[in-house]
Amino acid sequence: MLETVTGLVGLTAVVYAAIIGAMFLFQSSLLYHPAALLPSPAESGVAEMQLVSLRTEDGLNLKSWYAPPPKGRPVIVYFCGNAGHIGNRGFKARVLLDASFGVLLVSYRGYGGNPGEPTEEGLYADGRAAMAFLESQDVGPERVVLYGESLGTGVAVHLAYEQARKLAVVAVVLETPYTSITDVAAAHYPFAPVRLLLKDKFDAISKIAKISSPLLVFHARDDRVIPVRFAQALFGAASQPKKAEWYDLGGHEGLFDGGAGKLVVHFINRATADRDANITNN
């Protein structure tokens, strides 16, 4: 009997170690789910957007989509979630374009046929390439709104954090954000030592308080991918001015069906007006 129990314990340990080892080795595949092909802007409902190339600091050229802003209007730099391609966000870009905003849909490395492999530091570099591209188009941070969706909220927070030390952006919009990917992974895999194993942490909560731009956070209480408690904790740690909207329904991907587009447009218009008033008064 003792030998049988010992054998079962040993087998369990071996199986557990194999599972943890596989999770460690394939963690990138668990986090990033890029689509290889990218449709045209017209096929995604945003025919006026142009194919542009973002040059990263490590030498990659990333195909992305851009529509310049009408005079005096801001550009929304949109950082997507972890799955699909920027064309999947065409319906959200449509709302922003119809509100007379410029839009830059950033396609990450490894997504939509772009070269490279996605990593945390790589996505931050992609974000900096987006800011550099806008500078080349005579659009400075004082006309930029950083918009992050799901995984992309960590990128938006990091870019806003970097910009806060130079010239703050107009506003930051976070759709279904998190405190860190480590926290979310630990919630989904409580049996695994993810805090020791995870390489790409996207630690947003350590940076959020240092962002001085107006902040909008919105999230659904029934979100099973990123539980709402993480968004609430991130919002609680953020500095003023800030606004949050907690939807009862919408899950992880359906918030625009519940009117979030109007919320975003109103918030950005207000932040832009406030920035313009501050510039005029100063």
What does this structure look like?
The chain has 282 residues and is of the alpha/beta class. The protein has one domain (32-281): Alpha/Beta hydrolase fold, catalytic domain (Rossmann fold), CATH 3.40.50.1820. The chain is 40% helix and 18% strand. It is built from 9 helices and 10 strands. It has helices spanning 2-25, 27-31, 90-98, 120-136, 151-164, 181-188, 194-197, 228-237, 260-281, and strands at 33-34, 50-55, 61-67, 75-79, 83-84, 102-106, 144-149, 171-175, 215-220, 242-247. The strands form 2 sheets. Strands 2-3-6-4-7-8-9-10 form an 8-stranded mixed β-sheet, sandwiched between helices. A two-stranded parallel ribbon has the order 1-5. Helix 4 (120-136) crosses helix 5. The model has no long low-confidence stretch (mean pLDDT 92).
Write the layout of secondary structure elements.
Elements: H1 2-25, H2 27-31, E1 33-34, E2 50-55, E3 61-67, E4 75-79, E5 83-84, H3 90-98, E6 102-106, H4 120-136, E7 144-149, H5 151-164, E8 171-175, H6 181-188, H7 194-197, E9 215-220, H8 228-237, E10 242-247, H9 260-281
Parallel strand pairs: 1-5, 4-6, 4-7, 7-8, 8-9, 9-10
Antiparallel strand pairs: 2-3, 3-6
Helix pairs in contact: 4-5
